[in-house]
Amino acid sequence: MLIVTGLVQEARIAAGPGMTVICSSSNPTQLRSLLAGFDPTTVRGVISFGVAGGLDPELESGDVVVATEVIAGRTRWLAGLALSEELIDGAGLAGQRIVRGSLVGVERVVPAQTAKAALRSETGAAAVDMESHIAAAYAASASLPFAALRVISDPATRALPALAVNAVKPNGNIDLAMVLRGVARNPLLVRALVSTGRDFNRALRSLRGCRGFLLGGSSSGLIPADL
User: Fold this and answer.
1) Which run of H or of E encompasses 9?
2) C-alpha–C-alpha distance, residues 131 and 48, integer Å
3) pLDDT tens digit string along 141-193?
4) So what CATH class is 2-159+200-220?
5) Rounded to whole angstroms, how far apart are CA atoms 153 and 146?
6) Distance (Å, rounded) from C-alpha 81 to C-alpha 177?
7) How many CB atoms lie within 10 A of CB 224?
8) Which of these, 65, 109, 139, 202, could form a disulfide with 146 (CB 3.0-4.6 Å)?
9) Helix (H, G, I), strand (E, B) or coil at 161
10) In angstroms, rounded to a whole number, what is the distance separating the alpha carbons of residues 127 and 129?
11) Residue 15: which of 37, 47, 38, 53 has the closest Cα?
């Protein structure tokens, strides 16, 4: 399976036998370039796997969204048609809150509550990320099955601090030095960053618990989406 992630932490969780992992470092242009050089005949399907921003105000950090479709502008890709209750139950997800819903793909992080609310109103999507639409488009172009699982990191009810958004290095790691410099300049950011870090760590713990989803998708076979 080809696993598409945005952050190195997500890539480390996904890595393992039978998995080819591509990490975009939260850079859509870089992701498209990496996929353009990838041989689709070497994999059986594509899964977008990682954290996401919440759009549904009912969702909290750590909640799992299994995509029914991915939206980008006026384009929609159906996803996860083979993800039955049996597959999810067998993937070790029974202890986590799971919803099925739409994901919306964007080219830049959506940090503000107002922007999240606008996307929710426009698309009805449960969550937003910067990789799923690119992964879905690649899968469609290569006639490969596609699925997406995303865990909420920053809920719709909270804004993502700009410092946290800008602190992702090109390799997908977090630039701690940048964070510390930002806090030194504005100590009032500490509370927001602590909340963001807590949400992110909760999301990663939940994502680790979702790894069986990848194994389930790999072993059971995904039904190609009706694109």
Assistant:
1) helix 8-14
2) 7
3) 999 999 999 999 999 998 877 666 666 666 656 667 766 676 677 776 677 77
4) alpha beta
5) 22
6) 43
7) 15
8) 139
9) coil
10) 7
11) 47
Task: Report the distance separating Cα 143 and Cα 120, nearest Å.
Answer: 29
Question: Tokens for 35?
Answer: 């996929």
The β-bridge partners of 4 are: 22, 48
Q: How far is CA 62 from CA 18, 53, 58, 200, in A?
A: 26, 11, 12, 8
Q: Does residue 12 register a pLDDT over 80?
A: yes
195, 70 contact by CB (below 8 A) = no
The model's pTM is: 0.84
Beta bridge partners of 72: 75
Q: Are 97 and 91 in contact (CB under 8 A)?
A: no
| Strand ranges in the chain using DSSP code E only, listed in sequence order | 2-5, 20-23, 46-54, 64-72, 75-78, 98-105, 127-129, 146-154
- Distance CA(207)–CA(185), nearest Å, equals 33
Between 78 and 188, residue with greater pLDDT? 78
